Every structure is written in C-alpha cells, then in structure tokens.
Amino acid sequence: MQRSPKNLAIVLAAAVIGVLLLLPGGASAKDRLAFSGGPEGGTFQYFSNGISTRLSKQLSDVEVSNMASAGSLENLRRVNSGEADFGIVYSGDVYLGRNGKLTKDENKYENVWALAYLYGAPAHLVVLADGGINSIADLKGKRVAVGGAGSGAASAAQRCFTTLGVWDDMKVEFLGYSKAAEALGDGLIDAFWVFAGFPNSSVIQAAASNKIKLLSVVEAAEKAGFFTEYPFYTKVTIPAGTYRSVDQDVLSFQDSALWVAGAHVKPEVVQAALADIYSADGLAYMVKVKSTAKSMSIESALDGIVTPIHPGAEAFWKEHGLTFTEMQTTR
C-alpha cells in the first residue's frame, strides 16, 4: 500500500528527529553519571553528594546521581568497571590498585584516573580517656572498629596495624563511623578508627557523650618502617581543641582523598565538571557543604597524586598553569 506524500513526509520527519535525539549532540542528549561516595556520616559522602547536586544543577547537559558506598576501595572497583563514573578514592588505593598491590587483590585497576586533590584524610584512633588504652600495644585483645568492610579506612587500618604487629591480635570490627561512635559509648568496642578530614562528625559524636582521647600511631609507625613502605602517606597534626576533651596536638598521618573518574568518561565532561566546582562560586559552595573543602584550590589540585591524570583534567589544569610529574602523565 502506497503512502501519501503527506504521510511519507511525516514518517521521514519522525525518523530524522529520532536519529537526531540518538546522536551525542542531539537536543535531548544528556550525560547521566553516577558518583560513588561513602558511608553515612563520612566525609566522602558529603563531598560526593555536594558535587553531584551542584553539577546536576549547573551543567545543563549533565545529571549526576550520588551513590552510597563502603568507601575508597569499593569506589575504586566501581569506577574501574564503569559501574560508577566518578568517585572519591584515596591516593594510596589508586596507586596500589593500579599496580596490583592491594591486600589480597592482585587485580590492576588501570581505568581509574585522578581529577583533583580534595583534602587530606588523617587517621584518628579514638579511645575512651579512662578506658586503659594508652599505646598501640594496648590494642592487643581489644575490640577495634576500623570502618566498613571494603572501605579505605579499613584498608589503611590493616596496613598500619599489620606493620605495627597488632592486626592479628585485635578483635577487628567492620563498622561505619557513626555506628562505631555509638558502639564506643555503649561499651561494645574499645576503640575506633576514622580515616577522614577533621573535624569529623562521628568523632564529635563520640566526644559529645564521652571523654575521649586520640592516640598517635606515628612514632611506632616510624620505627616499624611504615612510611618507607607506603610513601604516599604524609604526617599531619590534628590541632588541640579540634575535639572536646582533646586539649593537645595529636601527631598523625594522612592519605589524600582524590576525585577520580573512569577512563570512559568524556574529557569535555571532566573539563566542564572541574570548571564549575573549581570556580570561585563552586569552591565557596563546597565549603558550605563541608568545611574540610577549605583545602580545595586550583593551586593544590595536584597535591598527593602519584598516578595518571585524566586527559580532560590534564587539559584543564594546564590551562591554569599547573605542571605535572612523570607519574601523573604516564598512561
């Protein structure tokens, strides 16, 4: 049966519109991306949710949804596989994962590229002030929460306490930060480990109802060769007064929390995302989301990165006059 010229024109027009909508530049084309963040109460989740919300509002052709996560290692795997497009991963996990050196995991996660440094994540080892734990050796036989299973916090704890020779002697509990703070107050655990920017809401939570103290692991770690084995960790001081009842500086160490993207994410999307978040308005917004974001700046954007930068990020930071190390550009 023959179509009339009018009907044929309608069919052809519909077909053309359909093709245009499927093209990358089509009128309804929109990049829908997933950002893998962290557990409730953790700094990762504040950052990932904040960035996702802002990009979805500010970039007309991008929609970013925030995903809850156990933390750094889960984000590394999600981004590498393409399950997530953006994530927050500790620099150490990106480095070890890329080189097949993660604990009990020899896979090489080579599809995860750094975009920018967000903040330093110091180790907090929280105990009750009157709980009788005064040194790392006192943790033997004690119930210690180290973060959720698969999190960067748990991974860092295992590296640290294994080097210090106490990991196998502790009663390790894989609890998220908020639950660990509650458990400490309820007497269900003896100590908990937080690997996040300060001030951390869960440590504040613990200090609100109990007198706490923070133990330093640095001296013992230095003697055990921890910083030689894991050079991406750097020393940092948690200032006195950061938490209630902690009235002296605490020497700790930190990893760098990095904003990362999968190799599959288009360079122009990365550039647009960085341009918005690292604008004056974007940075001011991030500080309102979480005060830890005060460490974000164009000048510090490449701090702590010892693995390759995404091509889109490389182009963006070059435009802002930053230079790169060989490790950051080798892909």
Describe this structure in words.
The protein is built from 13 helices and 10 strands. The protein has 331 residues and is an alpha/beta fold. It has 2 domains: 31-118 and 257-329, D-Maltodextrin-Binding Protein, domain 2, CATH 3.40.190.10; 121-255, D-Maltodextrin-Binding Protein, domain 2 (3-Layer(aba) Sandwich), CATH 3.40.190.10. Helix 2 (43-58) runs antiparallel to helix 11 (280-289), helix 6 (177-185) packs parallel to helix 7 and helix 10 packs across helix 12 (311-319). It starts with a helix and ends with a helix.
What are the defining features of this structure?
alpha/beta; D-Maltodextrin-Binding Protein, domain 2; 2 domains; ten-stranded mixed beta sheet; 38% helix; 20% strand; TRAP_TAXI
Please write out the topology.
Layout: H1 5-22, E1 31-36, H2 43-58, E2 62-67, H3 72-81, E3 86-90, H4 91-98, E4 112-128, E5 143-145, H5 152-163, E6 171-173, H6 177-185, E7 191-195, H7 201-209, E8 212-214, H8 218-224, H9 226-229, E9 234-238, E10 250-262, H10 267-277, H11 280-289, H12 311-319, H13 326-329
Parallel strand pairs: 1-2, 1-3, 5-6, 5-7
Antiparallel strand pairs: 3-10, 4-7, 4-8, 4-10, 9-10
Rg: 23 Å
The total strand number stands at 10
Which word captures the global form?
Answer: globular
Structural class: alpha/beta
Succession of helices and strands: HEHEHEHEEHEHEHEHHEEHHHH
Helix share of residues?
25-40%
Mean pLDDT: 89
User: How many helix segments?
Assistant: 13
Sketch the major β-sheet: 10 strands, mixed
Hey, roughly how much beta strand do the residues contain?
15-25%
Distance between the termini: 58 Å
Any low-confidence stretches, pLDDT <50, length ≥5? 8-27
CATH architecture of the largest domain: 3-Layer(aba) Sandwich
In CATH, the homologous superfamily of the largest domain goes by the name Periplasmic binding protein-like II
Total domain modules: 2
CATH topology of the largest domain: D-Maltodextrin-Binding Protein, domain 2
Protein name: TAXI family TRAP transporter solute-binding subunit
Organism: Eiseniibacteriota bacterium
